[in-house]
Amino acid sequence: MPLIVKICPNNSDSPIEPDESKQTTIAMNPSDRVTTIGIAGASGSGKTLLAQALQIALRPQAGPILSQDWYYRDLSNLSFEQRCRENFDHPDALDFPLLIQHLEILKKGNSISHPVYDFSTHLRQTKFVHYKPQSVVILEGILILAQAELRRLLDIKIFVETSPDICLIRRLRRDITERGRSLDSVLHQYQTSVRPMFMKYVRPSREHGDLVVSGEDETDQNVKIICAHFLRQTN
């Protein structure tokens, strides 16, 4: 069973950019071993914010965050209208074999070239981005703990638990302001795929977490507890 972390409720219902001046910095000894940390949770749970804050706390040993969202399958064979009807919250929407292959390469200390995904067109772009691993690789995504082969490659597994109403508010703000979506389209997607897939795949994956943290708690406090667990696991 995972360790439940419950601390300092945060009254804010919207993630904010992590304040580097308030982050905990962890002193670590350089190591040739690459440690992988996976952060999962519902869309809008705050997992990306937590990953960003954790990366700040663990750098320079932690490199850029690796995102599951880069690995959506290429749908260039479909029209835009057809792509809009796809269920992007189902595991089949993602190229997990490629992500698993890349994580295996990174754990050996080797570089990869990861794909780039355009949410506005639902297409994988033609360019690839070079990614060189540091001592710590942080991977975040809604379904990463729902994949047994991916879990096998993660040294520390974290699940971010947040109430559904907060997740929906955050998703509305993000998709409308950052991705140019309409209110109706966001709500339709939430009702037809986001929530059903969360219930079927994401929520059950909570049981695979080594730590379960609240996405409504203070991020800095969660980072301190995760870093303490990290040091116990790696020392």
Protein topology:
Elements: E1 3-4, E2 35-41, H1 47-58, E3 66-67, H2 80-84, H3 96-107, E4 112-118, E5 123-131, E6 136-140, H4 148-152, E7 156-161, H5 164-177, H6 183-202, E8 211-214, H7 219-234
Parallel strand pairs: 1-8, 2-6, 2-7, 3-6, 7-8
Antiparallel strand pairs: 4-5
Largest sheet: 6 strands, parallel
Mean pLDDT: 86
Shape: globular
Give helix and strand order, one letter per element, not per position.
Answer: EEHEHHEEEHEHHEH
Question: In a few lines, what is going on in this structure?
Answer:
The chain is of the alpha/beta class and 235 residues long. It has a single domain, classed as P-loop containing nucleotide triphosphate hydrolases (Rossmann fold, 3-Layer(aba) Sandwich), CATH 3.40.50.
Would you mind describing this structure in some detail?
- The strands form 2 sheets. The protein has a 6-stranded parallel β-sheet, covered by helices on one side.
- The longest helix is centred in the last third of the chain and has 20 residues, at 183-202.
- The protein is built from 7 helices and 8 strands.
- It is an alpha/beta fold and 235 residues long.
- It has helices spanning 47-58, 80-84, 96-107, 148-152, 164-177, 183-202, 219-234, and strands at residues 3-4, 35-41, 66-67, 112-118, 123-131, 136-140, 156-161, 211-214.
- α5 crosses α6 (183-202).
- Helices cover 36% and strands 18% of the residues.
- The protein is globular and about 50 Å long.
- β4 and β5 form a beta hairpin.
- Mean pLDDT is 86; it is low at 3-17 and 20-30.
- It has one domain (3-7, 33-234): 3-Layer(aba) Sandwich (Rossmann fold), CATH 3.40.50.
- The two termini are 22 Å apart.
